[in-house]
Amino acid sequence: MQFARLNDVTLHYQMIGSPAARPLLVFVNSLGTDFRIWRDVIVRLAGDFAILTYDMRGHGLSEVGATPYRMEDLADDLAALLEHVEAPPAIIVGLSVGGIVAQQLYASRPELVRALILCDTAARMGDAAMWAARIGRIEAGGMEAIADAVMERWFGPQFRAAEPEAMAGYRAMLVRQPPDGYIATCAALRDADLTAAARLIGVPTICIVGDADASVAPAAVAAFARSIPGARFETIRNCGHIPCVEQPATLAEIMRAFIAFAGTETVSHVSH
Asked: Tens of pLDDT along 135-145?
């Protein structure tokens, strides 16, 4: 395992391959998860790309640090990690809150970003009342208080019915996250609005969403994609909020196609 002390917090990360030899993909986890969610995508891409993945502060094996968080804090952690590993400009792959962290990184440190792959995310997620209600439930009953509802938002009905063992495992991942780190990330999401910044994104970008996403409506992701100059938009059929778990092969295929054609004008726009 690899750890680095950055911005007064210890982050857990993993580097696979050399970014000096291959394009670098950087994976940013979603709220209530850790970097293990990317495993089935990473195994399909390792060897062709250098890969950096990490647990966002307050998640996984990374420390919680000072709370509450701002989205700028989470992006600063990623910037510091990229500098720590001496990374060249990277392709940032962010899921849900990880996608907002990726947008904030581009807004703050565009020289670190080569392209953006934004999964099941938008420029703004939820509203103050929604986040206040979720924070209140956790404060009253811990992570268990939200677990069943979150599982229904994370995964589509077909996956929930077909994969009971996986559902138990991902539920365990959620409830074992530090409540103070989760709440602090909710606060960062509550206060983050990258709507104006999205119109200024100047690197190749793709927005991807599962057609059964119950956390971020596919129509909202499509509208978000339209707000980014030149961005592509793809849907993944029979998929909920976490495509790297439900449909890793399809997600990896979309990523490869996007990376191969990024920066060109002849791009396929096929929904999966």
From this structure: 999 999 999 99
H-only helix segments in the chain: 39-45, 71-84, 97-108, 128-141, 144-154, 157-162, 164-175, 179-191, 195-198, 218-227, 243-246, 248-261
According to the model, what pLDDT value does residue 127 have? 95
Is position 20 within any domain? yes
Q: Do 110 and 102 meet the contact criterion of CB atoms below 8 Å apart?
A: no
pTM over 0.85: yes
- Is the residue at 271 inside a domain? no
Answer yes or no: is 219 within a domain: yes
CB burial of 108-130 (b: ≥16 within 10 Å; e: otherwise) equals bbeebbbbbbbbbbbbbbbeeee
Chain segment 114-128, per-residue pLDDT in tens:
999 999 999 999 999
Question: Which domain CATH number covers 83?
Answer: 3.40.50.1820
Q: Does residue 180 form part of some domain?
A: yes
For the chain, the domain total comes to 1
Which tokens is 48 given? 């062709």
| Domain encompassing residue 120 | 2-261
Are 67 and 183 in contact by the 8 Å Cβ rule? The answer is yes
Three-point CA angle 217, 220, 222, nearest 5°: 110
pLDDT of residue 1: 87
Looking at the predicted structure, is the pLDDT value of residue 177 above 60?
A: yes
Letter for the amino acid at 256? R
